[in-house]
Design goal:
The chain is an alpha+beta fold. It folds into 4 domains: 3-197 and 357-467, FAD/NAD(P)-binding domain; 203-354, Elongation Factor Tu (Ef-tu), domain 3 (Beta Barrel); 472-548, tRNA uridine 5-carboxymethylaminomethyl modification enzyme MnmG/GidA (Arc Repressor Mutant, subunit A), CATH 1.10.10.1800; 562-614, DNA polymerase, domain 1 (Orthogonal Bundle). The strands form 6 sheets. It has a 6-stranded antiparallel β-sheet, with no helix packed on it. A 5-stranded parallel β-sheet has the order 7-3-2-11-22, with helices on one face. It has a 4-stranded mixed β-sheet with strand order 1-10-9-8, with helices on one face. A hairpin with a 2-residue loop joins β12 (161-164) and β13 (167-170).
């Protein structure tokens, strides 16, 4: 059988796989990206949007590290919105509606520019091991690919089963086959697998909607773009001579809810017809993105639920019905859709469905995203129990970086919780595990005022530069931005007006940088970019809160810096409770800080561990 050799193999070309393969190839590793369909790389299987609450911060962080998602989103965006604009900077998040097909083409174009990266259509069926370490993969075609590292980014394809009503069929997503044999290979390698569920709503023909009955949601007049490297984010958007597209808002109705309840009623003529309630679907779905039938059951007194109608692109009339994800039978979906204002005559182009798939519970994975069980095997994306394009892409770039650095003999990149949302994401996964699809929220980040979307370049671009993924022009732009910020802050602290420094004046709620410039015109000579002005204003107004969080970070870092030896025998630690021994031995935390975040470990357990380490 044919055999080929690479440094790194990436299995799966979703958002995680594209970032992993791109990072590895640009870091000098001979990389192959293996996918069932080379024409569906970076496919948006669910809604055609990038960013959102906390997710927008992750996209910015990927960009600061040198990843692709932000640039591809900016090049294909059809609408931008800054969420929580009226709230504080800690919870503001950029979001873009994108052209689904244009996004795929743009990502393919970028991958094609990478030397040392081969995009290959293959279905991986087996892992090759050598002495317990990964050595490559075997494919359904019979071809063998040897490699020193393998990154699995399989999405929902591992033994994927689709559900719609009482119908069940295998698939990784609609109209694509599942990867049925790789799960067995993972089990043979010693990995424990779990099962999760997700779903998607129906799509409708936008020409059949009654827009007079819908509320318009236009693009922001001054959009916030994602990429720090996009041509001057402060310039007018869009960069092409086209108009942004609007999304539309409507609501479900009691009639739609009655249609759902009738499909859940065992006394109805056809009995219970919802797979989520017949026992047909046994896996756990996402808590914060439930199906419409779950919403109706969970909130019986709520008369309506919001539905966002989102265009899928400029060259299609297909509209995504965000808010009514469902696996109900097609006739019930018809009744639901046609009971919603503005959708009475909507033509359904594709019905919603649910999908169950295998994943690898992430307590088996290190903070580098390398498997604890199989050295050289990295896991990223939904295989780790996450949901969302952004969470997947963030894991992908970290897995690609760490796989390439491991082969080069360089230290890994492990981001801290005070350094990035990606640090929070990975730490949560490898410390707490995932019993349901993990979704990032701002509330999960204890230092979210430090982890704003607007300062992701200042936080992480030095990391991306040291790794080797940040280009010279992007790095030079950051250095100039930092120079402008320092210069402005120095002036604000020195210059006084009416007995107060300009910095003290800027801290007043009613004072902005622009009003300060109007009072002190000499500030205009500083020539600050809009991005630098934003940083100066935020850091002045929130100086006290930022200083408090920095003190909290320093206290926590003392625990993070207390390393725990990798081979520590917890059974030999005296006075440690049996439950603590079991959890510490299974998770094997890298530091006392990580140990403190393990569920079920109390202060007494940590005190015993600290005393033992001190001895």
């Amino acid at each position: 059988m044919p055999e080929h050799a690479f440094d790194i193999l990436v299995v799966g070309a979703g958002h995680a796989g594209c970032e992993a393969a791109s990072a590895a190839a640009r870091l000098g590793a001979r990389t192959a990206l293996l996918t069932i369909s080379a024409h569906r790389v970076a496919q948006m299987s669910c809604n055609p949007a990038i960013g959102g609450l906390a997710k927008g911060q992750i996209v910015r962080e990927i960009d600061a590290l040198g990843g692709l998602m932000a640039q591809v989103a900016d090049s294909t965006a059809i609408q931008y919105r800054l969420l929580n604009r009226s709230k504080g900077p800690a919870v503001r998040s950029p979001r873009a509606q994108c052209d689904r097909q244009a996004y795929v083409r743009a990502m393919r174009d970028r991958l094609a520019r990478h030397t040392g990266l081969a995009l290959l259509e293959e279905t991986v069926t087996d892992l090759l091991l050598d002495g317990g370490r990964v050595a490559g993969v075997r494919c359904a075609s019979g071809t063998t690919y040897k490699a020193r590292a393998v990154v699995l980014t399989t999405g929902t394809f591992l033994r994927g089963i689709l559900h719609r009503g009482d119908r069940m069929w295998p698939g990784g997503r609609i109209d694509e086959p599942a990867a049925d044999r790789l799960s067995d290979a993972l089990r043979r390698a010693g990995l424990r697998l779990g099962r999760l569920k997700t779903g998607t709503p129906p799509r409708v023909d936008g020409r059949t909607l009654d827009y007079a009955r819908l509320a318009e949601q236009p693009s922001d007049p001054k959009p916030v773009r994602f990429s720090f490297s996009s041509p001057r984010r402060r310039e007018a958007w869009p960069p092409r001579p086209v108009e942004p597209l609007s999304c539309w808002i409507t609501w479900t109705t009691p009639e739609a809810h009655d249609a759902i309840r009738s499909s859940l009623d065992p006394a109805s003529p056809r009995g219970v017809r919802a797979p989520l309630y017949t026992g047909q679907i046994r896996s756990t779905g996402p808590r914060y993105c439930p199906s419409i039938e779950v919403k109706v059951v969970r909130f019986p007194d709520r008369p309506r639920h919001q539905v966002f109608l989102e265009p899928e692109g400029r060259s299609t009339d297909e509209v995504y019905c965000n808010g009514i994800s469902t696996s109900l039978p097609e006739d019930v979906q018809d009744r639901i859709v046609h009971a919603i204002p503005g959708m009475e005559r909507a033509k359904i182009l594709r019905y919603g469905y649910a999908i169950e798939y295998d994943f690898v519970p992430p307590l088996q994975t290190q903070a580098t995203l390398e498997s604890k069980i199989v050295p050289g095997l990295y896991l990223a994306g939904q295989i780790n129990g996450t949901s969302g394009y952004e969470e997947a892409a963030g894991q992908g770039i970290l897995a690609g970086i760490n796989a390439a650095r491991a082969l080069a003999g360089s230290p890994p990149v492990v981001l801290r919780r005070d350094q990035a949302y990606l640090g929070v994401l990975v730490d949560d996964l490898v410390t707490k595990g995932a019993e349901e699809p993990y979704r990032m929220f701002t509330s999960l980040a204890e230092y979210r005022l430090l982890l704003r979307h607007d300062n992701a370049d200042r936080r992480l671009m030095p990391v991306g530069r040291e790794v080797g993924l940040v280009a010279d022009d992007a790095w030079a732009a950051l250095q100039e931005k930092e120079r402008q910020i320092r210069s402005a802050q120095d002036v604000l602290r020195r210059v006084r007006r009416g007995g107060r420094t300009l910095e003290e004046l800027l801290r007043r709620p009613e004072v902005t940088w622009d009003t300060l410039v109007a009072e002190v015109p000499d500030l205009e000579s500083l020539g600050l970019s809009p991005e630098a002005r934003e940083q100066v204003e935020i850091e002045a107004k929130y100086a006290g809160y930022l200083a408090r969080q920095e003190r909290e970070v320093q206290r926590a870092r003392r625990m993070e810096d207390r390393a725990i030896p990798a081979g520590l025998d917890y059974a030999a630690v005296p006075h440690l409770r049996a439950e603590a021994r079991e959890k510490l031995g299974r998770i094997r935390p890298r530091s006392l800080g990580q140990a403190a975040r393990i569920a079920g470990l109390g202060p007494a357990d940590l005190a015993v561990l600290m005393i033992h380490l001190a001895r």
